[in-house]
Amino acid sequence: MAEQAGFQLRNRNPDVLTCIANLSNDEVFTPPEFANRMLDLIAEAWAADHDGANIWADSTLTYLDPFTKSGVFLREITKRLVEGLAGEFPDLQQRVDHILTKQVFGIGITQLTSLIARRSLYCSKWANGEHSIVSSFESSDGNIWFEPMEHTWVGATEFVETADAQGQPIKRGTNGRCSYCGASQRSLDRDDGLETHAYAFIHTDDIKARVAELFGDDMQFDVIIGNPPYQLADGGQGASAVPIYNKFVEQAKELDPRLLVMIIPSRWFFGGRGLDGFRQRMLSDRRMRNLVDFQDSRRAFDSVDVAGGICYFLWDRDHNGDCDVESHDVSGAVSRSTRPLLEEGVDIFVRSNEGLEVLRKVVQVETGSPGVTLPPDKRFDGQVSGQKPFGLRTYFRGRSKPSGPDDIEVLQSGGRAWMSRSEIEEGLALVDKWKVFTSKSSSEHAGQADRNGMRRVLSLSGVLPPGTAVTETYVLLGTFETEAEARNCYSYAATKFFRYLVATRTSAQDLPRSAYSFVPVQDFSQPWTDVELNAKYGLSADEVGRIDATIRPLEIS
User: What is the pTM of this model?
Assistant: First the structure.
C-alpha cells in the first residue's frame, strides 16, 4: 500500500462530506470541521485525566458511531489514529488494518447512509471490495453494520383486512404507534423498499445484547460519538413530529462508555414534548463534563435551522462535578462558566451564562438573598393570563361589524372583530379592565435571531381599553383599573431588560405563562425605561452591552 493512499482527503476542495452536510435538516449531517471540534474536546479531556497522554496514540481504545450517516466521525477519528499510531505500527497498511478492524465501528441508520459511511471510511461501499483500503475484512459490511429494522406497532384502533405470509386472513392496524420510538404507523408503515427509519440502536429492550450480537460478546466501547436523528413524524397535524434524539442518548449511556459525545437539539433544556424526564436526568447527571450550546443553530451549521438551537456535550463516566458550559449567544458572542446544570429552585437549564448572572442580580435586589429564584409574589408570571383568557380558541371568528350596544371588540388572529358580551363564557370580569396583551408566539421562529444576531422576542403587543377581549392567539400581561397603569406596564414589557429575561427562560416559539417567571414584577404607578432598570439591578456595562447586542428596540404604540 502506497504511503499516500487512503486518508489524503483533508485537502480536497470541496470535501464531499461538507457538501452532504448542507443538504437538509431532516437528519442533520455533520460538517467535518464541526466533527473535529468534538474530537478535540475528547482529546483534551483524555489528556487532562491521563497525564497529558494522546488518546490517538492508544491502539487499545474503541470508538462507536451508533447512528452514522456520512461517516464523518469515523473518518476523522481514523485520520487521527493513523497519525497517532505511526510509532507503534510503522507499516501504513498494517496500521490502517488495525484501526479499521479493531478500533472504529459504526451502525448505519439507513441503507443509503451505511453505504456512504463505508465509502467515506473504507474508500469503497463494500468493506471487502477491490477498492477498499482494508485488506483483512471478510464481510462486505466491515465494521459498519446495517440491516433494515421493523417498528413495533401498538395501540391501533383502526384496522384493515389483509393476509399473512401464508395467505391466511388477518386484521392489520393502521393507526398505531411504535412502542420504541413513538413514530406514527400512518407515516412510516411503508411499502417494501422504502426506509421506515426504524433505527436499530433504539429499537431494542436490551442495547447491550444488541451490541454483543453485532460486534461480539466481549465488545466494550470506550468512546461513543455521533449526531443522532432528531425526530420522527408522529401523525399529528401539519409537520408534527416526536423527538427521538433523547432515546439515542439514553441508550448510549446504557453501554457505559468512558466518554460519550453527541450533538442534539437544545430544546431539551426546557423539556416539553416528552422531554421532561430526559431533561431532569440530564441536568441532574454530574457526569456531564462539558456542554457547548449554540442558541442559533446556524452558528454551528451554516445552512441548518434547528428550532431552539443546537448543542453538543461530553459525558464522562468518571467525572463527578460541575459542568464547563460554553455558551454561544444569538449574536455569536461566546462565554464560559463552570457551574451546575441544574440551579436550585429552577427546573430548566439556564443556557446563557450572562443571563444567569443578570438573574442573580435581580434576585439579590428583590429578595436580599443570593440565588436564581424569585418568590411567587415577586414574579411577573403571576399576573400573566392562562392560555385562553376569555375561552376563545385561535380559530374563533367574530362579526366584521358591531350589531348591538352589548357588543365588544375582539382581537383575533388576522385582525379585530365583534361579538356579543353575552357570548363570553370565561374571563367576563376582565372585559371591562384595561389590558396589556402580546402574542402567545414569539416574534422569531423558535427564538432564532435575525441576520444581525438580534431578537425582538415579543410579537404583536399593546394596550386594549375596557370592552375588549382576545382569542388564545394572545395572552394578557396584566389587567388594570386605569389606563395609566396599563401603559406603564406596557412600557416595562417593551424594555430590553424585560424581553432579555423572557428570552433567557425559553427557546421555543411559544411563550406560555412560565416564560415570564424570571421577570420581576414592578410598581406600575410609574413608567419604566432600560436606564432605570439597569440602574435598579446594578447591571454592569458589559451586561448592558450584551443585552443591547441581542435584543432589538421595541417601539411603544
Answer: 0.85
